[in-house]
Design brief:
Layout (H helix, E strand, L loop, with lengths): L1 H10 L18 E7 L3 H13 L8 E5 L15 E2 L6 H15 L1 H5 L16 E5 L4 H13 L4 E4 L1 H7 L10 E5 L4 E2 L2 H14 L3 E4 L1 E13 L5 E13 L6 E11 L5 H7 L17 E12 L10 E3 L5 E4 L5 E5 L17 H15 L7 E13 L6 E4 L6 E5 L5 H18 L13 H5 L10
Parallel strand pairs: 1-2, 1-11, 2-8, 4-13, 11-18
Antiparallel strand pairs: 3-7, 4-6, 5-6, 9-10, 10-11, 12-15, 12-16, 13-14, 14-15, 17-18
Helix pairs in contact: 2-7, 2-10, 3-10
InterPro entries: FAD-dep_OxRdtase (IPR006076), FAD/NAD-bd_sf (IPR036188)
Family: Belongs to the flavin monoamine oxidase family. FIG1 subfamily.
Protein name: FAD-dependent oxidoreductase domain-containing protein 1
Length: 453
């Protein structure tokens, strides 16, 4: 706490925070913490900062989002799944925390004079299918999940056929099935619940795009004799919508929660701009990757017992409502990665790559009819597909919460608390997420999750 107070004193003059009198569409002149990105991750961090602030109404938090309509936001374009079936201890712990949070969401996010929050949670579980080659890894993952308290069972092909008679088990040697705390929910409702609650606690919301930082930089010599430029962000410059004007926000702490575009924000702090073989030349390895989601109708398809099914091929689907509708997709291979310049959907990808896999696994899907589709962005970590959480070693007041590669929505409640703890206390307290720090890019140590969808 002393360290945090010192940062505030160094970075800010003593100004009173007058949130209620401030024009909400304009950025404040000063903030203790500026969060770049108003998706689920940014608003979760904002909420937990206010929830854990040392004294009530003392921490000035500002969230900057360039698109308050969320027309291209990864949060609202997600399929809304939550699961505990991971291969890394930290991922299991984060999702278990988030499941408990969502179950008691009104204890956390309810706002007086507002209706109770209903995220439309569907507790139908995840069903992971494994081939003969993948069965041993699946069983090993389940052992870890059980050790962490997740209720997951293993099913043989015969047991699968009994429980899910619509399922073709050809090529399936084993399956894992989540018995509780797994399913899907409405992402838009959760995002708005976090945002509404955080703003009721005094968080400022601003519409604009962060275009640059004002940096204070000094050169030091490392133990190895390397000259290093160490920086602090003094000011965040926000360009206003449809304008050439910008508003500077003087701040003490900056959080990069810009999702698929977080590498651009990192470059504004000169991260990755140095020589390729130097510490300052190490980039934030997060980039946008486009993913398609298709919605189809199959009147004789799986019923209410239908889980979120992940096939041996990587194709996935789940029930959508109760009228014979389903949604799903498949992550493309590296060679098939689509252009990210727009969110147009490739319908041939479904016909050629997704549908044959679905029809093989569920014979009733042979005659399905596609009704609609959409595309969204993953904040894809090209290094190891795991998140980047924590501080940058050369920019001492910049924190990351990005690179979730498709898992951000379900882990946002836990990550928000973790980042708030790191900012306010200088360390993780609830869940140790040090494995996901930026330093692993320097060491070349990957945090590999086997259950990537």
């Amino acid at each position: 706490m002393v360290k945090f107070s010192k940062k505030l004193k160094e970075a800010l003059p003593g100004n009173d925070w007058n949130f209620m009198g401030m024009a909400r569409e304009l950025p404040p002149e000063h903030a203790d913490v500026v969060i770049i990105g108003g998706g689920i991750m940014g608003w979760s961090i904002a909420y937990w900062l206010k929830k854990k602030e040392p004294r009530s109404n003392t921490l000035r938090v500002a969230v900057v989002e360039r698109d308050l309509q969320y027309s291209k936001a990864s949060t609202v374009l997600s399929v809304g799944g939550i699961r505990q079936q991971y291969s890394m201890q930290e991922n299991i712990q984060m999702s278990r925390f988030s499941a408990d949070f969502l179950r008691s969401i009104n204890d956390y996010l309810f706002v007086v004079n507002q209706p109770p929050i209903d995220i439309q949670y569907q507790p139908s579980g995840y069903l992971f299918l494994a081939s003969e080659e993948g069965a041993a890894v699946l069983e090993e993952n389940v052992q870890l999940q059980r050790t962490e308290g997740a209720k997951v069972c293993l099913l043989s092909p015969a047991q699968m056929k009994t429980k899910f008679p619509w399922l073709n088990t050809d090529g399936v040697a084993l399956a894992s099935y989540g018995l509780e705390n797994e399913g899907w929910f409405d992402p838009w409702t959760l995002l708005n619940a976090f945002r509404r609650k955080a703003m009721s606690m005094g968080v400022s919301q601003s519409c604009g795009e962060v275009t640059s930082f004002n940096l204070f930089t000094k050169t030091i010599v490392s133990d190895e004799g390397e000259l290093l430029n160490c920086s602090r962000i003094r000011c965040v410059n926000v360009q206003l919508p449809d304008s050439i004007e910008y508003c500077p926000i003087t701040c003490a702490i900056v959080v990069n929660a810009a999702g698929a575009w977080s590498s651009r924000v990192a470059e504004m702090a000169d991260i990755g701009t140095g020589p390729p073989d130097s510490l300052s030349g190490i980039k934030l390895p997060v980039e946008p990757r486009k993913r398609y989601v298709y919605v189809w109708h199959s009147p004789d398809g799986p019923g209410l017992e239908c889980p979120m099914l992940i096939d041996t091929t990587g194709a996935y689907f789940r029930r959508e409502g109760v009228a014979g509708n389903y949604l799903g997709g498949l992550s493309p291979t590296e060679e098939e990665e689509p252009d990210i310049q727009d969110l147009e959907v490739d319908h041939e990808f479904f016909q050629e790559k997704v549908w044959p896999k679905l029809a093989h696994r569920v014979p009733h899907f042979e005659s399905l009819k596609v009704k609609s589709s959409w595309a969204g962005y993953y904040d894809y970590n090209t290094f190891d597909q795991s998140p980047v959480i924590g501080m940058h070693p050369l920019v001492d007041n910049l924190y990351f919460a990005t690179g979730f590669s498709g898992h951000g929505l379900q882990q946002a409640p836990a990550v928000g608390e973790a980042v708030a703890e790191l900012i306010l206390n200088g360390r993780f307290k609830s869940i140790d997420l040090e494995k996901f720090s930026f330093s692993r890019f320097i060491k070349g140590t990957k945090a590999l999750e086997k259950n990537i969808i």
